[in-house]
Amino acid sequence: MLDRNIAAEVLARAVKSGADFAEIYLEDKTGSNLTLKADRIESVGTFREHGAGIRVFEGTKAIYVYTNDTSREGLLDCAAQAAAAVRAGKGCAPVGFSHWSAARTEEEIRIMPGDAAAADKAEKLRAANAAARKISPEIVQVTCGFSDYTQDILVCNTEGVFVSDRRIRSRMRVAAVASDGKENQTGTASPGAGMGYEIFASRIDPEACGRLAAEKAVTMLHADACPAGVYPVVIDGGFGGVIFHEACGHSLEATSVAYGLSEFSGKLGQRIAAPCVTAVDDGTIPNEWGSSHIDDEGMPTSRLTLIENGVLVNYMIDKLGGRRMNMAPTGSGRRESYKWAPTSRMRNTYIAAGQDDEAEMIATMGTGLYAKSMGGGSVNPATGEFNFSVEEGYWVEDGRIVRPVRGASLIGKGGEILMRIDRVGKKMTMAQGMCGSASGSVPVNVGQPMIRVSSMTVGGK
After folding, report:
1. Is residue 428 within 8 Å of 275, Cβ to Cβ?
2. Are strands 162-179 and 192-193 parallel, antiparallel or unpaired?
3. How far apart, in whole angstroms, are the C-alpha atoms of residue 319 and residue 54?
4. For the residues of 345-373, what is the DSSP string, one character each?
5. Angle between helix 118-134 and helix 206-221 axes, rounded to 10 deg
6. Do the Cβ atoms of 145 and 43 come closer than 8 Å?
7. Helix (H) or strand (E) holding 207
8. Beta strands 303-308 and 311-312, pairing class
9. How far apart are CA 258 and CA 90, in angstroms?
10. CB-count exposure of residue 105 (10 Å: 0-12, 13-18, 19+)
């Protein structure tokens, strides 16, 4: 993707004014998108994104410039613009390039995304659409989509790093709307993985996706309003992990920790969760949605334990955050594309499996809420305060699930909720999503086993 001699010349130009570090990030990304709506293929598209970003450091200050002109002249001009912003840096002497070995070998991709026919992809969407509509005549709208991409990147810097990576991802999305003529409810399913078109042989059943989305929508259409109050809450696996991702995960990123803007700043080695909670951020799981061989700063990705038996043991740290915190990076630097400077981000983040029986959690909870599937929400990393909607919920009385409820939301503070987890189930599952933060939108997995929170504010009627 980039000649080494040209890369060395560009980096030398970037540090010419006194920068003490320089980095080139080169990206070439191609992909396709199909959408089905109202029983017909609504759109088919392909895209290509190509460009490079050059970043320089002056102590704990960073300057980032990007371009889609990746010729020698274009990169030199980009480097000169970055160098021009440096005023009084101590400078550095670039180190000769050496290969870094990836932490693991590249997974086998049996069918490259670009080799799969659009007509075959369309048939998968039609199958999901038909399955969703068969669930009930109350299903009035179904939207199905499939997207895939191949992203090739190269990262090199003045510390001798010169390394490349290929990321391939595929994902299906189904949204079904149920209506009784007065109200509408929506159910969704959106599985994905770091795989090519072989994803349909092992990870995605289009008809099952359609049924799942439609069943959620119909169930919630006939649900009662959720009672409001403070109750025990059982949160299922998969998308239930969005609670940890948002309410705690962002507060463990250097993006907030390095500035003292996290409720967990300065708490390494302290208990921040119940002893039954161990949480991990792992970028090395083969074929997973949030995995890669290297991060977007050229470091091998890692399996990082964040919380061990309730004790905070690690933060997620990017290169610049590491300078500000005087700590080593953890392979957590990520960015949406060459147009964004990297920062610390989650990858596949989950609460690890525990030892508790899932049925017992509900049978002994008394009266409360079982949140089977979570929706969207918001969080303030500085305080940990969050508010999340429940996509599919059920009311529990005397330890028995008695009816579906809708309009539920979970409200609380991350640090407090972590301490109130009193059960962690045996089977951890993950779900795929896109996380937006300071370096754009990146693919992440959220996950957990079924967990129980002994006391939590439930918003409702």
Report:
1. no
2. antiparallel
3. 14
4. --SEEEEPP-SB-HHHHHHTS-SEEEEEE
5. 30
6. no
7. helix 206-221
8. antiparallel
9. 22
10. exposed
Going from the C-alpha of 359 to that of each of 209, 212, 215, 417, 447, the distances in angstroms are 25, 22, 22, 21, 19
Find residue 315's DSSP bridge partners: none
pLDDT tens per residue, range 82-103: 999 998 778 898 999 986 654 4
Residue count of the chain? 461
On average, the pLDDT of the chain sits at: 95
Query: Using an 8 Å Cβ cutoff, are 92 and 56 in contact?
Result: no
The one-letter code for the residue type at 418 is L
Euclidean distance between CA atoms 178 and 108, whole angstroms: 40
pLDDT in tens, 14-68: 999 999 999 999 999 999 999 999 999 999 999 999 999 999 999 999 999 999 9
pTM of the full structure: 0.95
Which amino acid type is present at position 397?
Answer: E
d(CA 376, CA 346): 17
Instruction: Return all residues near 74 (Cβ < 8 A) that are at least 6 apart.
Output: 52, 67
Sign of CA dihedral 69, 329, 305, 101: positive
How far is the C-alpha of 323 from the C-alpha of 257, rounded, in Å?
12
Residue 30 burial class via C-beta count within 10 angstroms: exposed 0-12, middle 13-18, buried 19 and up: middle
Coil/strand/helix, residue 109: coil
CA distances from 16 to 55, 60, 81 (A): 13, 18, 11
Q: Which amino acid is at 301?
A: T
Q: What is the pLDDT of residue 110?
A: 92
Which pLDDT score is estimated for 103?
Answer: 43
Residue 448: what residue type? Q
Q: Where do we find the tokens 């998108």?
A: 33
Question: What is the rounded distance in angstroms from the CA atom of residue 350 to the CA atom of residue 279?
Answer: 6
Q: CA–CA separation, 178 vs 187, rounded Å? A: 8
Three-state secondary structure call for residue 97: coil
The tokens for 461 are 């009627």
What CA–CA distance (Å, rounded) separates 83 from 335? Answer: 22
